[in-house]
Write a structure and sequence with these properties.
four-stranded antiparallel beta sheet; mainly beta; 0% helix
Length: 115
């Protein structure tokens, strides 16, 4: 499985961005996908998860502001981020876990929320 993330950039507080993660390879092997983020000097944290069955979970810090989505196994993974705050500044990574518990990571995309 290969993951390619994009869509980061500089946005003002209160603004929006949509991250995309293109998926290729053995897409039928994917059990669930996530977005993680890592802020400077902090540990990587889980932002949102979507399973192959469509179940979704969010970190408390992004609930009501971020939306993870993926139409089907052949379409990209998205993260719609609204009402962005400076504390959302981080490198965002897409991740996939296979049914055999292999981890796949995309390269990060930097999101900077600043006025």
């Amino acid at each position: 499985v290969q993951l390619q993330a994009c869509g980061g950039g500089l946005v003002q507080p209160g603004g929006s961005l949509r991250l995309s993660c293109a998926v290729s390879g053995s897409i039928s092997s994917i059990n669930f996908m996530d977005w993680y983020r890592q802020a400077p000097g902090k540990q990587r944290e889980l932002v949102a998860t979507i399973t192959s069955g469509g179940s979704i979970n969010y970190a408390d810090s992004v609930k009501g502001r971020f939306t993870i989505s993926r139409d089907n196994a052949r379409t990209p993974l998205y993260l719609q981020m609204n009402s962005l705050k400076p504390e959302d500044t981080a490198v965002y990574y897409c991740h996939a876990m296979s049914y055999t518990n292999f981890n796949f990571w995309g390269q990060g995309t930097l999101v900077t929320v600043s006025s």
